[in-house]
Amino acid sequence: MTDWAETYDQSWAAREAVFAALLEQEDSLARVLARFDDFERAHRLLTKDGEVRYFAKPQAPDPIGAMNPTTPQAFHGQMLAASDYFEFRRDRLLADLSQTADCVIELGSGYGRQVFAMWLAGANAQARYVAAEPSAIGRRLTQRLAALEPRLKLECHPFDFRSATLPAVAPDQRVLLFSSWASMYAAPLDRSLFRAIAAHPGPVTCVFIEPFGFQVNPHAPFAAQQRGQMEAQGMNTDFFEALREEGAAAGLELVSVAPDLFGRTDETLQLASVIIAEKAGQDACAEL
């Protein structure tokens, strides 16, 4: 078993170098993000001789070929062949959910990709945004990118799923809290996270977009393969169980569970489930 944490910080130096070059050429957040996506489609981040670096993929992306429905993907658990351009708009989902939130928190935010994507998709301009991330380089890069969008009220806080301390939020604020391909690294998971979330006096909506289909349904078509990959890389295998047990006991109610909702089936760590839990505010609970 490998430990993802050993190379996590090293990978940020490689990403920061790519972003530094892009920021010398662009002053648009949307263009910087799009060009970084293009770079990552053409390169793979690998460890070689103890160093984490980007290596060019053997074949450059082929736009015309990518239109053909040849990529094995999933949609609502159903397997299909689709174009590489077929994707689930999680930026729109998060932007829509943000409209009733006063504070939006991303756990394991990396360089802020999902916060920026939802912002550019029309997220609530009045909300406070918090990027909670363990890597100091990731937080620094997030702040540098956020400077390209002066209206975005974003702040960065240290955060680690293995010893979870949530950013402070005003008691009366409505919170949207989410993770996207981040809770998968929570090993071991600090199960007190769910009690901390539920302890917020105001309403909370949690959205977890993660490769957790095997945790929801261990008999699903790709469950065994997905579990094997997660275990081999030292990733989380008990998040959904902890959410059902610790979260439910603390007052978090599961309102939507969509296993294997979207993603590639030939790369099961990219096969995402969407899990949504909610807690009503104390005032609403008192009225029930």
Automatic annotation (TrEMBL):
Q: Which SUPFAM superfamilies does the entry link to?
A: S-adenosyl-L-methionine-dependent methyltransferases
Q: What is this protein called?
A: Methyltransferase domain-containing protein
